[in-house]
Amino acid sequence: MPAADGSPGLYDAWINLPYLPGEVVPDPSVVARFKRGNSAYEGGETMTDVIAEMDRLGIASGVLSKAPRDITPPYVHGTKTGELVLRETCERLAGIAGDYPGRFVTSVGIDPRLGYEAAKHVRIAVREYGIRCFRIIPMFTGIAIDDKLAYPLYTAACDEGAVVSINVGVPGPMKPAKLQRTILIDEVALAFPELKIVMSHLGDPWISETVAMLLKHPNVFAMTAGWAPKYIPEDILRFAERRNPTKLMWASDYPILPLDRTAVEGRSVPLTGASLAGYLGGNARAVFGDPA
After folding, report:
1. Over the stretch 174-231, which tens digit does the pLDDT of each residue have?
2. What stretch of H or E contains 165?
3. Dihedral through CA 230, CA 18, CA 20, CA 176, nearest 10?
4. Of the four, 144, 170, 222, 257, which is 20 to 30 A from 228 by CA?
5. Is the confidence at residue 8, as pLDDT, over 80?
6. Where on the tree of life does the source sit, at the highest rank (predicted)?
């Protein structure tokens, strides 16, 4: 759906499915880091509210994501797992995508620790529910980006033509950071050169590694989810402006950051021409595709 002025409109590479009231417990470390009280967890906002805000801000479409998990102590995995969890989540996502045609590509979190069973979950999600992206969040799974247990999942996603989105950098929740070090993307991208890999959160404090992965691998991209656009590191912006305009994607990470702030600041980042157009939507459309 184009914006009111006839332009393609923004494409948000990461919109979290609104929480149902009482669905999750606030994570104190995330609440403190983003200074939004408990609003990211309280629930109460509906998809009707989200669509209205998207329309107001000229956000044409986006990737609607749900990664079932719990808040747990630092060294206890937090990913909810199993086929029943997968199907319940996919049904919810597919239902919303069907209710709002042309607005959402859908993305679901899968537990890579399941090995070959995770590969079966990928096929179920793609073939039965139309899921196009799989979210890997190492801080919640307890295994690193390049752990061999995750390779069946990567293989299945590659075979199905799906995208894999992987959290990189120090996490907000009190979880180990080394599982998400950006350089761990390297061997996965080498092993699966046809798999589209989107790094989420930019990989702070390993920003130079993020840029290196974007430069080295044609199949690796990055989204600015979790970053207020005015704070995007200069090295990332310099890469997008001077080296490759096709790799960087705008993402709100709603409701962790609000749609209005990220949309306004996103349009004001110091990028020009193809770099700005790609960042605001063109690059995400090229990777995730237009919603059905």
Report:
1. 999 999 999 999 999 999 999 999 999 999 999 999 999 999 999 999 999 999 999 9
2. strand 163-167
3. -50
4. 144
5. no
6. Bacteria
Instruction: Give the side-chain half-sphere CA count within 13 A for 247.
Output: 25
Q: Which pair of structure tokens corresponds to residue 137?
A: 């969040």
Q: By the 8 A CB rule, do 89 and 132 touch? A: no
Report how far residue 257's alpha carbon sits from residue 268's, in angstroms, rounded to the nearest whole number: 16
C-alpha angle with apex 204: 203 to 206, nearest 5 degrees? 75
Tokens representing 151? 């390779």
- State the Cα–Cα distance between residues 259 and 251, nearest whole angstrom: 9
Are 196 and 157 in contact by the 8 Å Cβ rule? The answer is no
Which domains, and CATH codes, for the chain? 10-288 (3.20.20.140)
Spatial separation of the C-alpha atoms in residues 168 and 147, rounded to whole Å:
14
Cα distance from N-terminal residue to C-terminal residue, the chain:
11
Tokens 């509210």 belong to residue: 49
Q: Rounded to 5 degrees, what angle do the CA atoms 260, 261, 265 make?
A: 120
Q: What is the pLDDT of residue 38?
A: 47
Task: List, for residues 21-34, the tens digit of each pLDDT value.
Answer: 777 666 777 777 76
